[in-house]
Amino acid sequence: MTLLSVRKLRTEILTRDGPRVVVDDLGFSLSPGEVLAIIGESGSGKSIAMQSITGLLPSPPARVTGGTALFEGVDLLSLPERDLRKIRGNRIGMIFQEPMSALNPMMPVGDQIAEAIMTHRGTGWSSGRAEAVRLLDRVRIPDAANRARQRPAALSGGMRQRVVIAAAIACKPVLVIADEPTTALDATVQAEIIALLRELRAEVGCAVIFITHDMAVVRRIADRVLVMQTGRSLEGGSCDEVLARPKTEYTRTLIAAANPAASPLDADIADDATPARLTVEDLVVSYPKRSSTFSLRTPDRLYAVDGVSFSIAAGETVALVGESGSGKTTIARAILGLAQPDAGRISLLGRDGKATQNSAKGAVQFVFQDPQSSLDPRYRAWQTVTEPLHIAGERNRKRLREKATDLLRQVGLDETYLDRLTHELSGGQRQRLGIARALSVSPGLMIADEAVSALDASTKLQILELLQGLQEKTQLPILFITHDFAVVSRIAHRVAVMRFGRLVELGPTAQVLRDPQNSYTRALIAAASGAPAAVPPQASGHRIAPAGVQPAWRPMRRYKPGHFVAAETAI
Asked: What is the pLDDT of residues 161-201, one digit of tens each?
């Protein structure tokens, strides 16, 4: 029996130069309960193909021009939109690559999940909201009842992704289309989400189409694999067959790129004699914890960053690692002056306080985790990447386009992308635009927040090599926020591991990866390698206390030169 059968699918995008084929003669089938992984580089047509099948193409400029997609015997491509809406979110669940674009920014996340349940199951608000809280708890969002009342902007990127996953499984669909669902998640949560999808599959016989560029995820979840290149099916077969005995050079390249022979970088660059470009000392950032609407007392504070100290020298990359919500992005926002610290000191390029914040506007460039929300949809690619130069006063259109061409080449895009709008690009291509924009003004410090998480393996290597080459030429210091230990081993001189707003381990990358001293660090490294690893229990989580209460944990101890570890009882 076949649940979904796609035959001769063809999709075009209208451009200034005429129609451009982005999916060409694509065919595959899916049985009930089966997991099909679709892999390929950014721009290979993976996401566009799934949007074509479910009627979610931006129209115009994209349109399906041929083929069939039989789902439970009904051709999805011939259904009117009204009938498709009854299937999407009910029989077919969707997990999108960019959660911020999939969620209503003005609506509490719990209500968004409850709305899907009400629409397709006919329940009331009360039972729908209760089920939404249960689902949020199931996808491991802490304090689910309170988080359900928050809007997407109040959640970290990883938490937003988990909200989208909770919404997708709310009605127990027979097919889940998961477009890079674990991209923004750290290794331990990634393993839990994969286990959750397996659980759902076991409960209701759910089939899964899993779009990804992560070969480790493919090995852990897929029954069959379909390889796509330039909109076409290149090869397919069982997971073991394709990954162990690939038939095409392209597939062999993808597999090799996902298993780089990377050795951790030495940390000699960060010795005490090297002046720091960035110094963070005893940083504390807190936010009011939501309390009852009718409460008259001053709300307690949730300490998102709780006494963090580290430095970055010229030419050094420090990786900030931890689960979603651990405080990594809040630190970056504090450095940029976008989050007001309660206490502590931030020194950037030798300047403190407001001077630091002012200098950050030009001297620090930020590569965002979610490229869709950070790019202006009205801008063409050349305008996006040269926007900082335009703000700085450059008005000559010819020079800006020449600079844009050079920047795009640096991140692996040619001049044919100059005039494309963001909706004409894949998620990976949009991320590369964001990186090119950050490089445009030769910054004194770069903060990269999950900068390569949306990229396929081969493109990820290209971007990491680009950043390393740039660093060698300019001694650019980089704060690299990530959950991917493969990336850490490839690019970072030192690694700082965070949990619940506190540093639990800090040291040279090679040493920390080879000899982790904190149980939480060990769990993250084990999970990243695909080995089962239980996250050590934590009694308190983020510190919640009245404003101004001093931290109660003990300082980190020195394990080896440059390698510091927090006491287990302190975290």
From this structure: 889 989 998 888 999 999 888 766 667 667 777 877 787 77
132's enclosing H/E stretch is: helix 125-138
Provide the angle, in degrees to the nearest 10, between the axes of the packed helices 457-474 and 427-439.
0
Find, among 427, 414, 412, 468, the residue nearest to 40 by Cα: 427
Q: Give the domain 262-349+487-571 fold.
A: Rossmann fold (3.40.50)
Q: Let me know if 289 is exposed, middle or buried by CB neighbors in 10 A (0-12, 13-18, 19+).
A: middle
- The pLDDT tens digits for 197-233 are 787 778 777 899 999 877 778 888 899 999 999 899 9
User: Does residue 94 come out as left (phi exceeding 0), alpha (psi in the -120 to 50 range) or beta?
Assistant: beta
**Better pLDDT: 64 or 202:** 64
Q: CA 311 to CA 368: how far, in whole Å?
A: 21
Helical pair 457-474 and 249-257, crossing angle rounded to 10 deg: 50
Please state, in angstroms and rounded to a whole number, the distance separating the CA atoms of residues 134 and 303: 25
118 CB-near residues (< 8 Å, 6+ apart): 124, 125, 128
What does the angle CA 41 – CA 77 – CA 163 come to, to the nearest 5 degrees?
60
Retrieve residue 67's tokens. 């083929």
Token pair 């799934």 is found at 50
| Residues contacting 206, CB < 8 A, separation 6+ | 33, 172, 173, 174, 175, 176, 197, 200
- Choose among 317, 318, 287: nearest CA to 305: 287
Answer yes or no: is pLDDT of 38 > 90.
Answer: yes
Alpha carbon distance 232, 275 (integer Å): 52
Answer for the pair 316, 511: CB distance below 8 angstroms, yes or no. Answer: no
550 pLDDT more than 70 = no
* pTM passes above 0.70: yes
User: d(Cα 183, Cα 453) in Å, to the nearest integer?
Assistant: 6
Secondary structure of 67-94 in HEC code, one letter for each residue: EEEEECCEEHHHCCHHHHHHHECCCEEE
Q: Give dist(CA 163, CA 156) in Å, integer.
A: 11
9 DSSP β-pair partners: 26
**CA proximity to 324, closest of 108, 524, 171:** 524
Are residues 362 and 392 in contact, defined by beta-carbon separation less than 8 angstroms? yes
In this prediction, residue 473 has a pLDDT band, given cuts at 50, 70 and 90, of confident
Terminal alpha carbon distance of the chain:
52
